[in-house]
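Entry:
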Amino acid sequence: MGLYRSMRVVGVLVLAYSLSMLPPALVSLWYRDGEVEHFGIALLAISAVGLLIMQVAGKRGANKSLRRRDGFIVVVFFWVVLSMLGAIPLMLGTHMGFVDALFEAVSGFTTTGSTVIVGLDGLPPSILYYRQQLQWLGGMGLVVLAIAVLPMLGIGGAQLYRAETPGPGKEEKIAPRLVQGARALWMIYVGLTVLCAAAYWLAGMSVFEAVAHSFSTVSTGGFSTHDASLGYFDSSAIELVATLFMLLSGINFGVHYMALSERNPMHYFQDTEVRSYFIIVAVLLLVIFSTLTVTGVYQGFWHAVMDAGFEVVSVLTSTGFGEADFSKWPLFLPPLLIFTSFIGGCGGSTAGGIKVLRIVLLFKQGVREAMSLMHPHAVRPIKIGGRVVKNRTVQSVWGFFSMYLFVFVVLTLLMMAAGLDQVSAFSAVATTINNMGPGLGEVAYTFSTVSDPVKLLAVIAMLLGRLEIFTLLVLLSPRFWLE
């Protein structure tokens, strides 16, 4: 009964998603690029799949609320089904094979930003817009969007929210009712996107370019309409806009909500995670700027600061925009930036990675264990923001971290078995599981040259990273289905 109830919700969400084919169709009509028919076919195909899923599921358990396990089923099935359906316009519009189109769609939805397309500058405007839209919808989470604007579905929103929302602290609500909270998050998300688009336009982009890049900036996705990414514009003003809005998008949207609702910007500095996030940015900026200056990569102070700041924020927030080619930077800088992507942004943001709050908790736990060796009888609770963190929370963070490393190692070995060299395999997994985009070695720019097995492994890594490992792995447990 629970599976039928969950699949019915998936069907309704897929049917609702089919409407997202309308904006790129309108873009096609505006630019007369000949793609409107393809988006029309995609709309009909996705609608048909949604109706078919609803028909198969029937009305069994339709009036009952979702349980916690149902939330996992809905989120995972919805993301997998949507990734396959999202590939349809790409297959029709660019004549890609299924594996390439699936890779591109998953990269978009998970806001990874890796691509298999070479020659973006020559693609129809509607296809370029569609890729950006994929990231924008995936940024805050399509399921959270459904909770915000489709409460009439009668689904257990709390269960979907906990399964979908990235980062620790999922039990906390920013508003008394979950629907209100989800709407507040999306209002902030839309507001940031509008401000970002306006800033890009004032910095010199066309309206189309400004809207397109605001989608991938606020979602921390990193797709661009040009092969050279933001480097195409060669503009310090555009670089500054991108850095600012990537930095803002990597902050917990709950903190944005508190700061705006109480009109108190000090919330950003009072929050332990956000404060740690700023400190990490500052330290990395200082290290990378100093190294670039000492090694003589840049002769000018301003240029070195700009490129260092842009790449630090781009990688830390897992956006992956390209402006300077950090894979060619000297000494330890390329691997340092790859390792930086493991940190990620704040929990409750659109960024990927492990999340800053988990890193802080792991560090504090490590310090506590080291102190316990010297003072074994001392009781030292871990505190975040003045509040004692429950041992259950610390254990869950360690569990996530250990599973994260295990999955990373397994995927890296599988990538090597599929033909990648050690550096390429390591960075391919790092960039996909952290939802970042650019890597090192063969995947420094695109995944276009790697084999289909590598691309499919990358698809799995992107989904695992976006759904934070456990949401997807829990469905592989026989016990989950027996309960």
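The two ends are 12 Å apart (CA to CA).
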